[in-house]
Amino acid sequence: MNNGVNFNESWLTEENFNLPAIKKRAGELGKRRSVKKSYQAAWLFRAVTCIDLTTLSGDDTRSNVQRLCHKAVRPVRDDIVRYFGMQTKGIKVGAVCVYPNRVAECKEILKSLNADTSIKIASVATGFPAGQTPLSCRLEEIRRAVADGATEIDIVINRTYALNGEWEKVFEEVKEMKIACGNAHMKTILATGELGSMTNIYKASMTCMMAGADFIKTSTGKESVNAILPVALVMVRAIRHYYQKTGIKVGFKPAGGIRTAKDSLTWLSLMKEELGDEWVNNEMFRLGASSLLGDIERQLFHCAYGRYAAAHELALA
Amino acid sequence: MSASAANLVERIFDEMSYGPAPEDPKNAFAWLDEHDRKFGHFIDGKWYKPEGREYVFSKNPANGEKLAETMQGADEDVEYAVGCARKAFQTWSTLPNHIRARHLYSFARHVQKHQRLLSVIESLDNGKPIRETRDADVPLIVRHLYHYAGWAQLKDVEMKNWKPIGVIGAIVPWNFPLMLLTWKIAPALAMGNTVVLKPASYTRLTALLLAEIAKEAGIPDGVFNVVTGNGRFGSKLASHDDVDKVAFTGSTEVGQLLRKLTAGTGKKISLELGGKSPVVVFESADLDSAVEGIVDAIWFNQGQVCSAGSRIFVQETVYDTFLKRLKERLSHWRVGDSLDKAVDMGALVDESQLTTIRKYVQTAIDEGGEVFQPDIKLPETGLFYPPTLITNVQTASTVFLEEIFGPVAVLLPFRTAKEAVSLANNTKFGLAASVWTEKTSLNLEVALLIKAGAVWINCHNMFDAAAGFGGYRQSGYGRDGGKEGLYEYAKPSWETRCRPVVTENVSEFGKPVPGLPKLPTAADSTKNPKIDRTYKLFYSGGQKRPDGQYSRPVYTKSGQMIAQVSDSNRKDVREAVEAAQKALPGWSKRAAHNRAQIIYYLAENLELRRNEFSEMLQQLTGVSEKDALLQVDKSIERLFYWSAYADKYGGTVQETLLYGATVKIHEPVGLIAISCPDEEPLLSFISLLAPAVVRGNVVVMAASDKFPIPAIDLVQVLETSDVPAGVVNVLTGNKDHITKYLAEHQNVEAMWYFGGALGSKFVEYESAVNLKRTWVNYGKERNWSNDEQGAGEEFLYHTTQVKNIWIPMGDIFAN
């Protein structure tokens, strides 16, 4: 848990960012590391446990939320889990992630599956995705979601303040949100696709961590550019610098556009390379995704049987 | 899945460790097997395996496994290969450009089809990671072939006054076996030359495979030949009479050897040699990206890269932070089998390389250096060495001065940008550099001030076919890549190859010949004693008496002594070079417009003395008034011609794959020493001086010793034309004696010699010591009044050296 520190403006401006160089490194991440065979299978299971299995749609109802929760508890077909001898590991996704109005039924469904303690319920809040509502409403939204059973809150930061360079105001708001979260973990969504530059992404990351973010998260999934590796590099570097300054470890959640098993391996390897082994688990790393799990399960099927599964052979999420 | 295998997945799941991720070598082995793992030469489109040759093993450096046997060629194999290449040249060089372009295009296509096979064999044979051969070496090869297929097509348009040289002897090293050979053969073939290539002894396999692919692609027989053999065999190739040009990439020592070997033979040569390239990290840099930049700079290809960033300079304000981050970066470094897709570094090429590196690191320790190597696992067998950083060393340390050619970098702090530039340039090499800062005004200035052929801004080790690569100083001369690369494989259309026969020993060259008083001949007697003219030397902007206080008589064509000029000795050469050296920084930085103005003014002032120069030329050289006036007028025209070029040859933007700008800059060579010919003494003097000076060089001119008067008379014109002190310096006396000391002077960056065959040989031979660029005539006169011969593009080539600055761009992101 990150209790934050006082706002320190100089921490925002200490680093420079060169986008072409960042892109080059980002492009190599997936090429300098590769995992094959048993390693690939093990890493894919790990990726499964880091997923925030997400549905954030206007047409979400109990039926698809229920399907999501069931899949969260049994993300990979039993025969595949047994094939790899992973049955004792209790492979589940990290969390389900929904709108505040769906939190209560998530809680109820997961409880019915005896998984309400092992799977976290994450709720987006604070006027997600745009955050353009009064602060009092945004704070109230957090409190209601927590009251309904959310153990993690994904807030969005105020991009108006961010783009105007009013970082201390961003800090103050996030700090209030942290208080509203109480014991729930707070993930701060930077909406990086709307911040305009790597410099701003770093400033937003640092501001949120100083304000007490337990995770920093790339995107709502609703921006035109979501989780991409160059952005991630800047954010994990911010995490590293914050850790070096305070000794506090903050988690990272890329979200939006992560769809393939191979992508998930690259993201895990990014965490391992840039932050170390302590960041390669669901306490410190989450993948916000909806369709990713299907591809991972398909790949695990191939690891197990050497054949590609038909889509209809795997359970829908 | 078995219980233990299942257990493994569980364990890895807990540890999140990396495992082996091998590339399957079976196709590579199939190719080796198809050739019974025994290779001969590939000559004239066929495998050639003469009897009675020895074979050596090519080994996989990662595990010592024998891959195949390759042949140690004999002298007659060189003979045969060069003969085939010569025969093929007759047709290849006369093919329509479009047909040659089609051939190269086909070559590119076929290489592309066999990319993976080439990548895997390259990785096996050299020890470098498959990631690099797959993502860097081989794609670049394909790119080069396509790029030069284009130049073949455009030859008559873009290189219209140039023609192919003939047979190229290419000798390439083991660090990028395929890539560097392609850098040679693509431009060579595009211009219509044929090639005999000798790959390095450690890494012969991919060159042989490429020859087979060339054949598959339909490249005519004999156009591209590969021969294998030892170093002596390479010398045999380089010195073969019928090899018209030697293209070499490799160590500075071997480059110097080849320069000496080919001196005076009329062969062209290009040398891409060693380096000790600086990486300059300013406090205004993106430090984390700069850390990754160091990874690219010094740990690419295990540091076995001529442009490796092996001297890292970090601004003192961020030195500790940066060093800490760099060390942290190395804590999760992975070294392993070259075919493993999850390693950062593979194996070194050979045991001897490992020994050299260890020796250097030990030397560093002995000299007080602190060595950092991360606590990482290396494979138990195979030729592996960890990434290494050395601190607490300085400019006088061995590891600062010498090229290590391994994954070892030195790290030094600096205080200011000016100091950083001085440190970066404090080296005999000048191949490459990188500059790290987010300040555009700073990075461009530093990029211009660093003496190197490639400067990368906020990146390192970027290559592309459209941008030339090659060195300043002892990193060699000539460029691989870009249009600039074509000039290494072409010669002016009017020129034929000289094959001078020099029997004298070069050590006999330039001995002083005393200038003694002479009794006047009957023809000399005049009615009234004339007031004698004092002909002094000219340097530092003033007329100086010769150090030795000797004079030499000057005779007219008819044998009449008309003057005595100062006789320069070694010390006069030293003074003149020093004066030029002082003038260089200021002159090369002057606005081109300003340089042009001065040379135009020189033309104006020469015009004023048109008749006087004409009379002097008539008297001295015996030409008619008409011819003398023609010579003066042509000289004035030449001054105009080159003044015009002062601001029209700055460079271009290269169309590389980089998102940003790759800027080619034609920088001055620096200090050029020029020994002038006897023919048309005014015109030839000006034809050589003017292009050098307008392009920002400073010159020390050794005047024709037969006819020095026009040069020394021109001094007065120079003095009245605002030419800054030291930019032009003129020495008279025994030209060859002066040449000797100029050629031996290590501050002289280029030496042009227009005189005899022995002098030409001497200059080329001596140039090997500091690898100065040379331009000599092998004793063959040229027609200076002809514009092709007296003012061709060749002059621009010799007055400039190409620097490519890579400027990546981009800050715009998403919305």
Automatic annotation (TrEMBL), chain A:
Catalytic site positions: K217 (schiff-base intermediate with acetaldehyde), K253 (proton donor/acceptor)
Main EC class the enzyme belongs to: lyase
Pfam families, sorted: DeoC (PF01791)
GO MF: deoxyribose-phosphate aldolase activity
Functional pathway: Carbohydrate degradation; 2-deoxy-D-ribose 1-phosphate degradation; D-glyceraldehyde 3-phosphate and acetaldehyde from 2-deoxy-alpha-D-ribose 1-phosphate: step 2/2
Subcellular location: Cytoplasmic granule; Nucleus
Keyword NAD: no
SMART domains: DeoC
Gene Ontology annotations for the cellular component aspect, listed alphabetically: cytoplasm; nucleus
PANTHER family in the cross-refs: DEOXYRIBOSE-PHOSPHATE ALDOLASE
Family: Belongs to the DeoC/FbaB aldolase family. DeoC type 2 subfamily.
SUBUNIT field: Interacts with YBX1.
Official protein name in the record: Deoxyribose-phosphate aldolase
UniProtKB/TrEMBL annotation, chain B:
PROSITE patterns for this protein: ALDEHYDE_DEHYDR_GLU
GO MF annotations in UniProt: oxidoreductase activity, acting on the aldehyde or oxo group of donors, NAD or NADP as acceptor
Endoplasmic reticulum is among the record's keywords: no
Domain Aldehyde dehydrogenase: 47-491, 558-779
Highest rank taxon of the organism: Eukaryota
Family: Belongs to the aldehyde dehydrogenase family.
Name of the protein described by the UniProt record: DgyrCDS494
Organism: Dimorphilus gyrociliatus
